[in-house]
Design a protein that fits this description.
- The complex is a heterodimer.
- By secondary structure, chain A is α/β, with parallel strands linked by helices.
- Chain A is built from 6 helices and 15 strands.
- In chain A, the strands form 4 sheets. A 9-stranded mixed beta sheet of chain A has the order 1-15-13-5-7-11-12-4-14. A two-stranded antiparallel sheet of chain A has the order 2-3.
- Chain B folds into 2 domains: 32-160, no CATH class; 170-418, NAD(P)-binding Rossmann-like Domain (Rossmann fold), CATH 3.40.50.720.
- Chain B has helices at 32-39, 93-96, 157-160, 179-190, 210-215, 229-239, 265-291, 319-339, 369-382, 391-402, 404-412, and strands at residues 44-48, 54-55, 70-74, 78-87, 101-108, 113-118, 127-134, 140-146, 170-173, 195-200, 219-223, 245-248, 302-308, 345-351, 386-389.
- The longest helix of chain B is centred in the middle third of the chain and has 27 residues, at 265-291.
- Classes of the chains: A alpha/beta, B alpha/beta.
- The A-B interface holds A 32-33, 35, 38, 44-45, 47-48, 50-53, 156-158, 160-161, 163-164 and B 202-206, 223, 225, 227-231, 263, 265-266, 269.
Chain lengths: 265, 420
């Protein structure tokens, strides 16, 4: 058994160095001007990324450069743990430090909704859409990550949050789709290119913010502000997404990678 | 009439920037009160409480009756020019560089004969209107102006050294997202600013008035978030060498006292904008402006801080916001010290509650953003450094002057009904 495992990893290492398996970076750069989610002003707010130089080969430290950084757990490309939402607050192993590490390296299914999102900024992923996708690519296996590809990461500036007087307008899953992925497919987690796992108008859904409410209530994880999803195959890639091990952390900015077999892409 | 000031030519890149050289700045401890009044645009002299003699220059005792009870009081600004001359040479570097320079003797209606700078439009032996202002050394001086407004009067070379007129100058308004920022931009455009750089934080969030703002003549929208060191430094790298006036309109205001707050994040946000934001601006723009205090007709000349009057004494209804304003006020005093001798004035506007969404439940009287914007431009044109704006601010400042500890106690006892 031991020998077999070593062979698997050795084969992977060979495939990675030959380029047969590629590593795709699904992460945005942590930049102080990258949009963060906006709540009504009387609520607490998500802090943007900030960096202050400690020293830069100067009188503060002549030979070295380093920065103090600060941000919210939900800034930039980030991971949502179940305790992020009130529905998941009492679940076991629901904070980033307690989630079993196996969750951070798992297969991923990518549902391409980019065409629909280009036509309708309020596009909602439905169970019917998922089932149509499954007809083509097979049923989503339990324990997989599911990512909604919207190509939203290609937007920048005001078009990214797409905030208007009646709130943000961006795609996401319908409450029924979330229920379907939890109850019928038992996925591991759900990821998007938008600023949240929920649609921009999700405050008006029932329940409000169904992706946060239902996924986290069921102990599922979330990934947001992803990019480069167009470089992933519908199935067959492996997602690598370990958040920072923050005590009682509700989430964490992180580097998200995908291992992709080139032949599969 | 004064020849209208022409738009300054582009800077010759081969010439060294003229460094600021302050005019004589030494004053006695007694005379500082004159400068303090001048910084507010007031003309005040010592009045003897015993014999009513008006005294100039400042003294320890009344030269007439030897009383030591001398009180600073505003005096009437009328006078008569009785002798004048135009200096063609001086041993003082500041004046040498600015020859010819007109000075004269004025008999004030209040009594004393004073030595004063003389505006070019004042004729021999004419009636004059006296102003007291701080000069490039930061000390109070007297200037005789024509009794009646003349054409292009503000463009007089000597008067312009006492003022911070936005005309032909390039101004940075740090936050254009608010009504206050937008009113300030409009007021500056009207005052003839040649360029108005307007900082816009978080361009990815829409804001009211953005289209109108972009359409104002001379406006250039710049990304600037004063809570972000990188953003401030990047903008300073771009325009720091041509920022003649900086007006910090950014503020973070939230109602609430320390115990009404759950955690420190709101207080930290307040400090990030109101205190650290100012600090970032000072570090990024201060040195460049300090080096350009004598850089021609569009030299750097003013730094404007907008501060809640409660910076002087905490009001718990906005307890943590005003604590951050107090920190900013203290830092503005530090900045004044650092700008001393550079010819850059730090203009502090202490205002009462502003008419905006965060102060919406407060009862009137409140200061409208337009009124505050107009007051900023007025202070710049007049060369005034300390402005108190609105009935609430005037009341607080008056009580602060009387006794800051009594004011503190009064504010502590603010009726519950005022709480938000």
């Amino acid at each position: 058994m031991k020998g077999e495992k070593c062979n698997t990893l050795a084969a992977l290492a060979t495939a990675m160095s030959s380029g047969e398996v590629e590593t795709v970076d699904l992460t945005h750069t942590l930049d102080s001007d990258f949009p963060v989610i906006v709540l009504p002003p009387e609520f607490g707010q998500c802090a943007p990324f900030r960096a202050e130089v400690v020293s830069r080969y100067d009188e503060r430290g002549p030979g070295w450069y380093w920065q103090n950084i600060s941000m919210c757990e939900h800034t930039g490309t980030h991971f949502d743990a179940p305790i992020h939402w009130i529905s998941g607050k009492d679940l076991p192993n629901a904070s980033v430090d307690a989630i079993p590490a196996t969750a951070f390296v798992r297969p991923v299914c990518v549902i391409d909704c980019s065409k629909e999102c280009a036509e309708n900024e309020d596009f909602l992923l439905t169970p019917e859409f998922i089932q149509a996708w499954e007809k083509q690519h097979g049923q989503i296996p339990a324990g997989n990550w599911v990512l909604l590809r919207s190509d939203w990461s290609l937007r920048s500036g005001a078009a990214y949050l797409n905030m208007r007087e009646d709130g943000a307008h961006s795609p996401g899953p319908s409450a029924d789709a979330v229920k379907f992925l939890v109850e019928e497919r038992d996925i591991l987690g759900f990821g998007t290119e938008t600023v949240g796992t929920d649609a921009g108008q999700a405050a008006h859904f029932s329940p409000p913010y169904p992706a946060h409410h239902l996924f986290h209530g069921a102990g599922k994880y979330g990934l947001q502000c992803l990019r480069n999803l167009d470089q992933l195959p519908p199935t067959g890639a492996i997602l690598v997404c370990p958040p920072l091990k923050i005590r009682n952390g509700s989430g964490s900015p992180l580097r998200v990678l995908a291992l992709v077999e080139r032949s599969a892409a | 009439m004064t020849d209208p000031l022409q738009r300054p030519p582009k800077k010759d890149p081969q010439k060294r920037t003229v460094l600021p050289t302050p005019p004589p700045g030494a004053r006695s401890r007694k005379a500082i009160a004159f400068s303090t009044a001048a910084a507010e645009g007031r003309l005040a002299l010592q009045n003897c409480a015993e014999c009513n003699h008006v005294i100039y220059p400042a003294r320890e005792v009344c030269p007439k009756c030897w009383s030591m009870d001398l009180q600073w009081k505003d005096i009437p600004d009328g006078g008569e020019l009785i002798a004048e001359t135009t200096l063609l040479t001086s041993v003082n570097t500041y004046f040498r560089e600015r020859m010819p320079w007109r000075i004269g003797t004025v008999r004030l209606d209040a009594g004393p004969m004073v030595l004063a700078h003389i505006h070019g439009d004042v004729g021999e032996y004419e009636r004059v209107r006296m102003i007291a202002r701080t000069d490039k050394s930061g000390q109070g001086v007297l200037m005789a102006l024509p009794e009646k407004e003349t054409a292009n009067m503000a463009d007089d070379k000597q008067l312009r050294t006492l003022t911070c007129d936005p005309k032909h100058r390039r101004v940075l308004v740090t936050d254009g997202r608010t009504q206050l920022g937008q009113c300030t931009v409009n007021a500056l455009a009207k005052a003839g600013a040649s360029k108005i750089f307007v900082g816009i934080a978080r361009e990815w969030r829409p804001y009211d008035g953005s289209a109108e703002l972009a359409a104002v003549s001379g406006v250039e929208l710049m990304p600037l978030d004063i809570t972000d060191t990188i953003s401030v430094n990047e903008l300073a790298a771009e325009i720091g060498g041509k920022t003649d006036i900086l007006i910090n309109t950014a503020e973070h205001v939230r109602p609430g006292s320390a115990m009404q707050r759950h955690g420190i994040l709101t207080a930290r946000d307040e400090m990030e904008t109101n205190y650290f934001g100012l600090m970032r601006l000072i570090q990024a723009f201060g040195p460049g402006m300090r080096g350009r205090g004598a850089d021609g007709d569009n030299s750097a000349c003013a730094w404007v801080n907008l501060l809640s009057v409660y910076a002087l004494s905490n009001w718990s209804v906005f307890g943590t916001t005003t604590a951050s304003q107090a920190a900013a006020y203290s830092l503005s005093q530090c900045l004044r010290g650092e700008f001393a001798g550079s010819g850059i004035k730090v203009v502090n506007v202490l205002f009462g509650p502003l008419e905006d969404s965060w102060r919406q439940p407060l009862p009137p009287p409140k200061v409208t953003p337009k009124r505050l914007a107009d007051a900023i431009v007025h202070a710049l044109r007049q060369g005034i450094e300390n402005v108190t704006l609105g009935p609430v601010a005037e009341d607080i400042v008056r009580r602060f002057r009387d006794d800051p500890f009594v004011l503190e106690r009064e504010l502590m006892q603010a009726p519950e009904g005022q709480a938000v």
